Every structure is written in C-alpha cells, then in structure tokens.
Amino acid sequence: MDPEIQNLIAVWLTAAASLIYCHQIAGRLPSGAARLLSLLPIMYLFTTLPLRLSSFHLAGPTIFYLVWLGNSKLLLFAFDQPPLSATPPLSLPNFLSTALLPIKHTSPSPSIAKSASKNKTPKFAVFAIKCGLLALIISLYSYREFMNPYLIYALYCCHVYLGVELILASTAAPVAALGLQLEPQFDEPYLATSLRDFWGRRWNLVAGGMLRATVYVPVRRALGGGRRAAAAAVVATFAASGLMHELIYYYLSRDEPTWEVTWFFVLHGLLVAVEVGLKWALGGRWRLPTAVARPLTVGIVAVTGAWLFFPQVIRSGLDLKAIDEYYVVLRFLRKSFNSI
C-alpha cells in the first residue's frame, strides 16, 4: 500500500479514536471552561494530524474536515452548542459522523430548501457534467504556455469551484450509503447577484455556516447587536476565513504566509459590509438588473482572486502540484482501462 494512503488511514483512525474520548469523557463535563480545557488536546491533535500528508488532494479535504470543521464543532461543543450537542444526546456513531463530516441532522434553511427544490436536474447528471468540465479544464492546462495569463486565471477560478465541489460531493457517496446526508455544499455561485448572495448563500455553505456560528454570531452579540455590530461581525468573519485559508496554504505548501489570501477575504468582508449598508440606506428599493449584477459579482470575485488569492498558489507551485496529481490519476485510469 502507498505510504501516503497508509498515513491517510492512520490520520482518520486517530481522529475517530480521539472523538470517542470527546463523547465518553469530555461530553460528561459541564459546558464552559472545564469542557473546553478537556477538548484543547484534541483540537491540537486535529491541527497537527494533516501535517503527515503531502498529497494535495488527500491533505486538502482532511485539513478542511479536521482543522476547520472539526475544531469548530468541538469549540461549539465546549459551550453546549450544536451540532455535537443535541437533545437527546447523539449516539457515538452519530457523534463521530457529525464531528468528522458535515452531516445534516436538521432540515435545511428555507432559502436553501427553496433553491434545492428548483433544481430538477438529477444529481448524477449534474455530477457527470461537472466532472466532464473539470476534465476539459485539466486537458487545457497542456497548452498553458500558449495562453494569456488572464485566461489561466479564469481557468483556475473554474477549477477551484469544480474541484472543491466535486471533492465534497464525492464524500457524500459513502455517507449516503450509511443512510445519512451531507449539508449542502454549493448553490450555483455563478448565478449570484451580489457579493452577499455569493458568499452567504451560494459559496461553500458548509464553511459559511460554521463561520456564522463560531465568529459572526458571537462577535455581533458581544458588540451589542445593531447595524454597526453586524458590519463589524461580517468583517471579523471574513478575516477569520482568511486566516483559515492562510493556514490551509501553509499545510499544502509549507511556505511562510504572505497574508495575501487573508487580505482577499478582508477586502470582501469590507465590500459585503458596504453592500449591506447601502441596501439598508436605500431601504432595499433599488438593485441592479440581474443581467448586470451576475457578471459584475463573478467579475469582482475573479479579478480580486487574480490579484490576491492565486499569486501565493502560483509562487508556491500548488497549482502545478494539483495538476500533476490529476495527470497521475488519469494515467492510472487509462492503464487500468487498457488492462481490462
């Protein structure tokens, strides 16, 4: 067995074993400081476990599920907040699955349920189409030396969306086999009509929901509520997201942070706060036509991404590393297919 696969198995078995302690021992302590102190060693363990992985496509999801989602859920659990705290208490299997994966135990919000009900296309067909688009983008990388840099950035934007969504969607397959369901991941972000719509309702809803519970709500409550508190909480939430992405970059590249990706998210936090403020000031009476708002929103994300999000990726060679891993998988599949 490949050493990287062995490390991956060891990482996830270690994480599962540590969560048994959280369920059986830490969960019996009173919520608050005592439970938080008992969980800190596990949170430290979750933070260090991905350092054993070097593959982009194995380390990336592991970092997201353990370091970001797992630690966030344990932090909420320390203060008796869902999803790990429930009435009645979760059984051990449910506790493990909820802690390690974005398992859905409750009904989705009305806005998410409404958008999901509009999508009548079979999930497998959508998955197959997006796999085909990702394969097309990967094949185009063979001609990178002849491409305009802005075209490469555009391909990278599409690659990030398709790659992240397909990786998360692939996780849903074994989870569905157990009779469970993952939280919604994306909701057609290319149809967003504003930055608030893009980040709050369409892009990586799993991370967005966790950031709302761990950063936005506590910060807004601490500042006393109101519009100014909401604006400050929005910026704080985006800053926290930027720091988490900075940490993800470090895991994948082991390079010192340059803080560009943090500024990308801080910038978008400020833009969203301004956007919401203008909406309040105008009483929601005026908005751009959809035909203008959609390309403008996606354009802002793409341009600022080319400015602040992708340079660090390119300098560290993470883009080439990810592309090379795709080519390795394709060569393996072709070899397996030819041997049949």
Give the secondary structure arrangement, pairings included.
Elements: H1 3-24, H2 33-48, H3 56-78, H4 92-100, H5 110-118, H6 123-140, H7 149-177, H8 195-202, H9 205-222, H10 226-253, H11 260-281, H12 290-315, H13 318-339
Helix pairs in contact: 1-2, 1-4, 2-3, 3-9, 3-10, 6-7, 7-12, 9-10, 10-11, 11-12
Quick take:
The protein has helices at residues 3-24, 33-48, 56-78, 92-100, 110-118, 123-140, 149-177, 195-202, 205-222, 226-253, 260-281, 290-315, 318-339. By secondary structure, the protein is mostly helical.
How would you portray this structure in words?
- About 5% of the residues have low confidence.
- The protein has 13 helices and no strands.
- The protein starts with a helix and ends with a helix.
- It is globular.
- Helix content is 74%, strand content 0%.
- It is mainly α and 340 residues long.
- The longest helix has 29 residues.
3D shape: globular
What's the mean pLDDT score?
A: 89
Report the sheet-strand fraction. Answer: under 5%
Helix count equals 13
Instruction: Round the Cα radius of gyration to an integer and report it.
Output: 21 Å
Helix/strand structural class? mainly alpha
Number of strands: 0
Can you summarize the main beta sheet?
none
State the separation between the terminal residues, measured CA to CA: 22 Å
